[in-house]
Amino acid sequence: MTKVLMVCLGNICRSPLAEGILRSKLPSENFLVDSAGTANYHVGDRPDNRSIRVAKKYGLDISSLRGRQFGIHDFDLFDYIFVMDESNYNNVISLARNENDTNKVNFILNAVYPNQNYSVPDPYYGGDLGFENVYKMLDEACTTIANQLIEI
Hints:
The chain has six helices and four strands; from the N terminus they run E-H-E-H-H-E-H-H-E-H. The protein is 41% helix and 14% strand. Strand 1, helix 1 and strand 2 form a beta-alpha-beta unit. With 152 residues, it is of the alpha/beta class. It is globular, with a radius of gyration of 14 Å. It starts with a strand and ends with a helix. The chain has a four-stranded parallel β-sheet, with helices on both faces. The chain has one domain: Rossmann fold. The relative contact order is 0.21.
């Protein structure tokens, strides 16, 4: 089974959306998709209502997901770790124990824009349009990731 982890800051906006989107594009018998945050602000919390709403608009239910914090053990559990921005990348890499851990980590938008390390903007302080834009970015990246993973 291939295991993929999506990581953002609080694990209530971007990474649960990415988790839900990628899950919908991969067969669950062959893939496990999860999400986490680099901070512990929202451990145990549901995704932001705006993330739940935009996911539901596109036929996805992420309301049962709960926030958790990224930990060193995630390097052992997951084959691929996708981060949303440079801060997430730096926080995750700072916990890496070796090159194998580091090689698992990549910016999610590199799926669409290779080696550019573009960030998915944090929509938390924005309005509904920010969540819509983030959904579209993540959907495009997750489509590419799913296609690549299925081909492996």
